[in-house]
Each structure stands twice: as structure tokens, then as C-alpha cells.
């Protein structure tokens, strides 16, 4: 893999040469596409000597976000989808980057409009593929594995007039990849329970059910939904096996160009205090080669409000989508501080370009600031704790511009 400096050089050269119009390659029934994205980030980050950092004192930094390849296949009633992603290194500690599959499934469209997907697919939980969020940052559901979660299994979708039902069975999570990095079990796209010590827990045999009912009015259309999830946690150590569950109610209301999406979720990870963390109040999760800790039990309220502005009179812009979002991990453990996040921003679209401009404020998110550190936590020293005990409970900010070209 490339070093960070090489990623930056390649990113700048490629993105400056990209055309405005997006186009994928078609080879028979197979469409080949992808995306390349880069970030400008500034905020409450510690300055770093001898190289650029995200800190205000350094003026922020530009870095490659990701490069991905997408494959879409359709022949008669057979469909398939695959996506593979590459991420850069961190520029220090000889971390050269990492890569992993995001999606990989084969499906069949039945005559009754239902569909089955087999393989690495998106778990049916929450109101949309990305929860309530419209922003690049997502909401707090994502960071506890309850939005845009990819697992290995079978999903069946059945539309019936105004009602759509989803059923899923997942034999395991998506697994880790390219493991010679910072972490042992967290090189993956979506957040799962991970086993960094070899003596922890792994996700097994998860069941999902989701129902969404559309109520169409004269001026307002609303998708009312509920999601349920239950799965096992297989022990690799001396602790007993555990399990986990989550339940959510959600809605997406559309009135003209306005969209309002609220969601309320309860989740509970039943783990043994004999696990390597030494407590049953925290669970080890991970993604993007970054292990973290979350509270074992919590409620998550989340809401997003957006307004789409079409711009036919602006040659360089198709539309702009301003949004404001709020979400919080409200923990049942009295000694833990809640983890809140608010995001205000907009998405800008033009042909193959899609640009996010986000300003995020949080008192408990691993990716919004680092000046106050991540608090104290049991377990390994690298295990952050902003989603868990959140002992610092300090508000920090992150300004982020994500430049993405999709083809």
C-alpha cells in the first residue's frame, strides 16, 4: 500500500483531471464503477510537529479519504453487487494503509417483486440504508453498529402495497481483513463486536426483522417503521457466551423538499464481567482499523432535518442539500456520561461530484477532536472510551469537507 504522501499526490493528480459528468464502464451485464474521495479536516486536534495535522494551529489538513471499486451485475432476474475499498495510512508508525470488502452478494428478483440477497449485505435496521443521517459524519447509531452495518448472511425483502418487510439471518459479522495493522480484528467497514485479544467475543447467528409502512397524504408522505435485532456473542475466552438485542422505531416524513427523519433505539449487549475488559458495562467494538469501547446498554435518540434545493439556473451545480442533525448515546449506567453529537452542513451535487461540508460538535465521538483524549478505560491502553464511560465529557468540534467523485 502507499504511504500517506503518495496517496495525497495520487489523489490530487487524479481528482484535478476528473470530468464533471460521471460514467461507469459497461461490459455485457456487468457495470464497473467506483469513487475517489478526499477530506479537508480542521478542529480541536493536537498540533503535530514536523508534519501537517488537523489542528487549527496547523490550518487543518487534506488527506485521501478512500478509493473504491464497484461491480453491479444484472441478467434476467439475477443480480449481484460487490464493492472493495482502499484507505490510506496515517503517516506515522509505518502504517501504510488498509483495505477490505464493503459489499459482496448475489441476489434474485422474484416475480412478486420480492428479492433475496446472499453474501455480505446491509443489515435491515433503521429507516434507511444510512439511518436518519444525510451527513458524511453519520449519526451515533453507526458507531455502535446499528446503521449501515454489513454482515455475512441472507436477507429477504418483500413489498406488499404500502408495507415493506425485511427478514435477515447473519451467520457472522463481516470479519477483519489485512490484519497486519494497528488492530488485530478491526480492519472492516462497519462497527461490530471485535476480539482484539483473542479471548473476547465475536458476533454469531444474528436475526433481523424490519417493517416499514408508507402513509401517503396530499402534501406529506411518511414511512413509519420498526426494527428488531437479536444475535449471539460467542466467547473465545473464559467468560460465558453472551447475546445482544436492539429495537427501534423510526420514521421518514417528506413534505415538498423538506425531509424529517426521527429515530429512537434501545440496545443491550449482555456480556460477562470475566471478559478481557474486566467489566460487563462495556463492549469492545471496532472498524476502520480502530478498536473502541461502547456502553453495553443505552438508548439512542436521533433526528435529521434536510431541505433539497434544485439549482437549474446554476451551471456548475445540480442541487444542494442543507441539513441539521442531532443524536446521542444515552447510557443506562449512572457512572457513564452520555455521548452527544450535532452536525450542521450541506451536500453539493454536480454530475459525478458529491461534496459534503460538515461542522460537527460532540462530547463523545472518537472522530470529533482529540485534545481532551479519550478518557480512562479498562482493558488495553489503545482502547478509546468516548462511546463508553466518556469520562472527559468535553465538547469539541470538527470542520470537514469531503470531496467525492463517483463514476
Kindly describe this structure.
By secondary structure, the chain is mainly beta. It has a single domain (4-406), classed as Porin (Beta Barrel). Helices cover 4% and strands 54% of the residues. The chain contains two helices and 22 strands. A 16-stranded antiparallel β-barrel has the order 2-3-4-5-6-7-8-10-11-12-13-16-18-19-20-22. β12 and β13 form a beta hairpin.
Secondary-structure map:
Elements: H1 4-16, E1 25-27, E2 30-43, E3 61-75, E4 78-87, E5 98-109, E6 115-122, H2 140-143, E7 150-160, E8 163-173, E9 192-193, E10 201-216, E11 221-235, E12 242-255, E13 258-270, E14 282-287, E15 290-295, E16 297-307, E17 309-310, E18 319-331, E19 339-350, E20 353-362, E21 384-387, E22 396-406
Parallel strand pairs: 15-21
Antiparallel strand pairs: 1-2, 2-3, 2-22, 3-4, 4-5, 5-6, 6-7, 7-8, 8-10, 9-14, 10-11, 11-12, 12-13, 13-16, 14-15, 16-18, 17-18, 18-19, 19-20, 20-22
Order of helices and strands: HEEEEEEHEEEEEEEEEEEEEEEE
What's the domain count? 1
What is the second-level CATH architecture?
Beta Barrel
The percent range for helix content is under 10%
- Spatial sequence of strands, sheet with the most strands: 2-3-4-5-6-7-8-10-11-12-13-16-18-19-20-22
End-to-end Cα distance: 23 Å
**What class, by secondary structure content?**
mainly beta
Which descriptor suits the 3D outline?
globular
Instruction: Count every beta strand, where a strand is a DSSP E run of 2 or more residues.
Output: 22
CATH domain class: Mainly Beta
Largest sheet: 16 strands, antiparallel, barrel
Q: For the record, what is the CATH homologous superfamily label? A: Porin
Report strand %. over 45%
CATH level 3 topology: Porin
Q: How many helices does DSSP assign?
A: 2
Keywords: Signal
Signal peptide: 1-24
